[in-house]
Amino acid sequence: MSSLANQLVRAEKEEIARAIRTLLGRPLVSRHDDPAAFDLIRKRRQPLIQWFDYFCGWRLVVEPRQGYARLVKVKTEPGATRPARRRRTTRAPFDRRRYTLLCLCAAELLTSPVTTIGMLAQRVVQAAAVEEGVPAFDPVRSEERAAFVDALKLLEHYGALTAMDGATDAYLDDEDAKVLYRVDTTRVIRLLAAPVPPSRLAAEGSSVPAELTFEARYGGDEPTATQRNLWARHSLIRRLLDEPVVHRDELTPDQAAYADSLTGRRLLRRAAGEAGFVLEERAEGFLLIDPDGIATDTRFPDDGSHAKVAALLMLDLLVTSGPVTDARLDAEAAGLLRRFPQWAKAYQSDGGGPRLAADALEVLTSFGLARRAGGRIAALPAAARYRNRPQNSGLRPRAWHVQEEV
Q1: Is 241 part of any domain?
Q2: What is the pLDDT of residue 84?
Q3: Residue 284 buriedness (CB in 10 A; 0-12 / 13-18 / 19+)
């Protein structure tokens, strides 16, 4: 093969790897928001579709004319570790009310390609009134309007809704604000990632999360050997791509057996290599590292928040002292606040220590570094990467990645 041909093959592999990690970090990529990333995904869409289907069992939809690519990520186990977040300054996670209004808005937006914020609010009022178990929506109340605005701004962020005249935030202070929207109904539909449409669920006596995440390709309660292998491959690689670290004691027997098999190890390494990740295999588990940070939406360690700084400082305690109680962590956090009275002003008040400890612990558990067990908090094996070492050891902590879900 000529040198030019080798360069072309290498460039193609690098582009595919970059596109895979881009979609993992942002499962919805729009031409309007990132034309370079979208053009790369459009250009390499066929091998990308095949990669996600073979290794993960995930569907990739690329719409060149409508200008977006949607990776439909399905979790093997439903969880609430990565909630939708408000697009306003607080970036607080969505609560139940905001999720409810998001679903009502999405359903009502399918009826018309153009609407106004007032018309949409009235349709949501009517829909909430007839839906059993859904609290009434009252746009007169400011807290209700704030929740409604958060739902709309998230839909705007995903490109399902575009303000053609006016600004959505104006509705926060004025129920009569005028905002004209254009609706991308196809994109609204694409936001739903559940393999089973919620409208098909049984009305009574069903386990809703289990039904929503059921995938027929794995055979249900009586899978064949081939289906069990397929589930083990997809579920294990999904976890590696979605979670910062996967410990062996968290795997099912089928997943553990697949990871230890010659075929399983070969495919794990192949998936990591084709996506541009570095696969770390240890006796305790696995993790994928993105050297370029493309698939990363949050990092540890960094100084992005007081909770992350406190988490790093508390991690050495967990690693060196073994499982500790909540009271011990609270005391450690309170000691930090006393030592640095000008730091973390939001916690420098009564009860600040326990609040800081709780937020730091949330960081550690979300990155797979600590776990609560038997009333105590214990460091997990991956935490040893961040243990305090002498300056001349030449060792440095390495960040792990977490992908945002749409």
Answers
A1: no
A2: 87
A3: middle
Judge whether residue 386 has pLDDT over 90.
no
Q: Is 381 in contact with 284 (CB distance < 8 Å)?
A: yes
User: Are 145 and 180 within one domain?
Assistant: yes
Q: Global pTM? A: 0.85
Is residue 223, in this structure, part of any structural domain at all? Answer: no
Within 13 Å of residue 80, how many CA atoms lie on the same side as its CB? 7
| 3-state SS, residue 35 | helix
pLDDT digits 0-9 by tens, 281-336: 988 999 999 999 899 878 888 877 899 999 988 888 898 887 999 999 999 999 99
Widest CA span of the chain, in angstroms? Answer: 71
Can you give the pLDDT at residue 298? 80
Quote the number of domains for the chain: 3
Write out the two tokens for 218: 């794995």
| In a domain? residue 248 | no
Q: Are strands 28-30 and 376-379 parallel, antiparallel or unpaired?
A: unpaired
Three-state secondary structure readout of 356-386: HHHHHHHHHHHCCCEEEECCEEEECHHHHHH
Q: Which two tokens stand for residue 266?
A: 């070969």
Q: Is residue 35 part of a domain?
A: yes
Which residues, at least 6 apart from 379, have a Cβ–Cβ distance to it below 8 Å? 315, 318, 319, 369, 370
Q: Is 181 found in the same domain as 102?
A: yes
Q: Residue 165 has which token pair?
A: 């005249």
The total number of residues written for the chain in this structure = 406
